[in-house]
Design goal:
Blueprint: H1 2-20, H2 24-33, H3 48-55, H4 60-75, H5 84-109, H6 116-138, H7 145-173
Amino acid sequence: MCKASVNYALANHFMIYLQEKGLLQTLMSQFKSRNTPENKNDSAAKDNVMIVESVCDPPVEKIQTDFESWFNKKYNFNLYGKNPDQYYRMEYNYMLFEEVLAKTSNMLSSMQANTPFFDSAKTALKTINEKFDILKHEYNSYNDTDKMREFDAKVESLKTDLFKLYNKVESFYKK
């Protein structure tokens, strides 16, 4: 489930990459207009890789390398790094955090503004988000096990703070 979520997120970022390069619309048009083989022996239809290569600069290995480079520059961490499991752990933490952050923010947005609780909750949410942004940028520099444990502890602490805030906002929101 986690890997599927990561793959979905990665595909989403690949679409953003293509959009920034001005290639997304062309790629989508190619997929929509491709021939569909009527039977298994018909080879008229292009496969997915062939379509991507026809729109982007082939071969697919170069597209992959260019995408990874773009992603690293944009998000300040290597997609796969030295250990692919580290990537999955960071992406999972990021996605979960972002989901709870968005839910909390949405509830706050629909609440009555300029109340003492609203103002303090908004400030707390902003602080948590800023701290998490700093952690995301530091993540790529954590190479050894001790540093990864420190990182995990910091993320868990922020997640705990965020979940406490979420629960508090939710209780006010339901009133």
